[in-house]
Design a protein that fits this description.
alpha/beta; Rossmann fold; 2 domains; 15 helices; 16% strand; binds ligand GMT
């Protein structure tokens, strides 16, 4: 699967958000895969990427973007600092490809940096993950910058068909956009109950429900708590919530108000989610908006059926009735009834768990995603839509 003998290895710069979000995880895992295949990979970010911390793959560099706050400016000029650092990396390491995860600010920084350097210009491959496009939906102030970053990239990919269409509709983009879905590391996320971990949160006759997110308002974490209160009227259930963010205090006080505070376990931004994930009976992701829903795919790879909202790209990840259940966004009673089905029909739940794992292995295979990006990094690329 490595680069062909006649094809020299590539030197790739990856621009990403270093935090725990899905785009950072995907950017890091994809970059590390290229490193394992013999390519040189240079991560450029404001902090060590979350998933890079415990790794030691060969051919990997990390270049920190330093930003200074000056009283004259309202905020640090991070995009300019990133472009300057990237220009230095391009010249020092002869970068062939810049993979920018997000149009703004990373593709903008890539395009600026490409203009700053002498000699051959690296190819700019931009992956849209969702928030930059939806941000524009909410705040038109970024519209032209986002459209410019997309139009000036050599290659643009979106993580779902939904996001591709939304980019065309919201931004009026006419250029070609490829869909390359996210993949999951199926060796890290795999089935296998760990009774000692499960026993920390639920007894044998209780159901164990899991939610993982950054608790932004669009994740609708309070609907997860409402669903717990609903299902608990008939089926004893415990809920583990991993992650942290602005809605966490609201979710905690709602749980108290609904009388289920002792059944909700907030673990915070816990890095080894896979151990807990595989012990859950069901996973919930009921966002208002979701370009893909990486956490749902990680649950599926762990052999855990997903109860999700019909939001955007989640419809491409979860198959209703096969690998989980999809319900209208905000349909708390619908989510609770779907969980009752999983609770009452253990054989069906087991079939769904197997189907979920199989779908993660096949439809979202790391090998296929790697092959798609390798082709987009190397091959001549037509820019026009439909060509
Ligand atoms: O969902 C978030 O708030 C984090 C955000 C990010 O940038 O990390 O996630 C986006 O990218 C992920 C990886 O492609 C997708 O799985 C998420 O669906 C997407 N989030 C949204 O569209 C809200």
């Amino acid at each position: 699967m490595g680069h062909l003998a006649n094809d020299p290895p590539l030197s790739i710069a990856v621009l990403l958000h270093g935090g725990a979000g899905g785009s950072g995880v995907v950017a890091t895992e994809t970059g590390l895969r290229f490193a394992r295949e013999g390519h040189d990979v240079h991560f450029v970010a404001n902090r060590v990427p979350f998933r890079l911390m415990d790794r030691s793959e060969p051919n990997v560099w990390f270049h920190q973007v330093e930003t200074l706050a000056y009283p004259l400016f309202d905020a640090p000029l991070t995009t300019l600092a990133e472009a300057s650092k990237l220009a230095e990396v391009i010249e020092t390491h002869r970068i062939d490809v810049i993979h920018a995860h997000y149009a703004i600010p990373h593709a903008t920084a890539a395009i600026l940096a490409r203009g700053m350097v002498e000699g051959p210009k690296p190819r700019v491959v931009t992956t849209l993950h969702g928030t930059d496009v939806t941000l524009v939906g909410m705040d038109r102030a970024y519209l032209r910058a986002t459209r410019h970053a997309i139009n000036e990239s050599d290659v643009v990919t979106a993580v779902s068909h939904f996001l591709r269409q939304e980019t065309i509709d919201e931004l009026g983009v006419k250029r070609r956009i490829e869909v390359v879905p996210n993949a999951v590391d199926i060796t890290r996320f795999h089935p296998g109950r760990q009774p000692e971990i499960r026993a920390r949160y639920a007894s044998d006759d209780e159901f164990l429900l899991l939610h993982v997110s950054n608790f932004r308002p669009l994740k609708r974490v309070c609907d997860v708590v409402r669903t717990l209160a609903n299902i608990n009227t008939t089926h004893p259930t415990q809920l583990v919530m991993i992650g942290d963010g602005p809605e966490q205090p609201k979710a905690a006080s709602l749980a108290a108000e609904l009388g289920v505070r002792d059944r909700v376990h907030f673990l915070g931004a816990f890095p080894k989610v896979e151990d807990i994930m595989r012990t859950a009976d069901a996973f919930m992701l009921v966002s208002e908006h979701e370009a893909f829903g990486l956490a749902a795919l990680e649950a599926m790879a762990s052999g855990v059926p997903v109860v999700a909202s019909q939001a955007g790209g989640l419809r491409e990840v979860v198959e209703d009735g096969e690998t989980g259940f999809l319900r209208e966004t905000r349909d708390v009673a619908g989510y609770a009834n779907a969980l009752r089905t999983l609770f009452d029909e253990p054989e069906r739940r087991q079939r769904m768990a197997v189907a979920a794992r199989r779908r993660a292995e096949t439809v979202f295979s790391e090998d296929d995603v790697f092959a798609s990006y390798l082709r987009l990094y190397r091959e001549p690329y037509p820019l026009a839509q439909g060509s």
